[in-house]
Amino acid sequence: MKTDDFDYYLPEDLIAQTPLKDRASSRLLVLDRKTGELKDRHFSDILDYLEPGDALVLNETKVIPARIIGEKSETKGAVELLLLKELKNNTWECLARPQKRLRKGTKIIFGDDLLLATVLETLADGITHVKFDYDGIFLEILDQLGTMPLPPYIHEQLKDQSRYQTVYAKNLGSAAAPTAGLHFTPELLETAKKRGVKIIKITLHVGLGTFRPVQVDDVKNHKMHTEAYEISEDAANEIEKVRSSGSRIFAVGTTTVRTLETVAKKHGKIVAETGETDIFIYPGFEFKIIDGLITNFHLPKSTLIMLVSAFAGKDQIMKAYAHAVEEKYRFFSFGDAMLITGEKNES
Q: Are residues 43 and 86 in the same domain?
């Protein structure tokens, strides 16, 4: 299976640069994965496809202001760090630019000595391990110095930083937003609850594993980086109750899919667990948990378009994406949404 098999044509003007004023006013392309039928709707219509007893599983991770810019203490050369995940004892895995000018022991100063980073190790793919020294509370310092780590295809300034957070974001730790959830409003979630839909929350902190590009020709040779997840006892019990009742599990976003399917692959069901996953889902994967998926439109040749192709079938996804391009849907993080639905998963 070749990476080029997951390429598609996308005019640049369809890449959404800013979020819509009303989160739920995005368009929604509905794909029935059993029949291949496509329907053009709006995101506020999502509840038409959910029944009482079904569950929406949300990723309640919260994006940290993970992009910080400083200067090397000796040369004053500019250095940008994108914080990916905390390792231990104030040591972080980061993407550094320009990495080639960093050596073990290099010190980087941020914000008039508010924050000092010492390079511990430089690895492949721009990954750098640094140790931070500071006085005070680290996340409060990041709030002062950092900015939201918007993807490189977004060139517009984000005026309201909260628009790169879901309305239910709670657990700090992500380097990118779980963007499928950006379409939900508190009102829409409350209406879902009143109609008998279960709202269940888990956490996966989005890091390099989610958005690192595939750089190999053969899909099977791509290696995912690990990302941390957590499923509480209550969440695990709720998910298993929904499954045993015969109702459906709708994952909100690919990060939710990866968390649920990671745990199910290990245990055969959903259990309470904290861990890390490097699961790579591409066509041929056997899904055990999810019955439906709410997602955004993903970059060509990315692991995310491979995941949705595994769930709905590559040919159907490519047909759906061609339709979205023709109908001028908005793509990527601030773009429109897609609902993949169909029969209950009997795995």
A: no
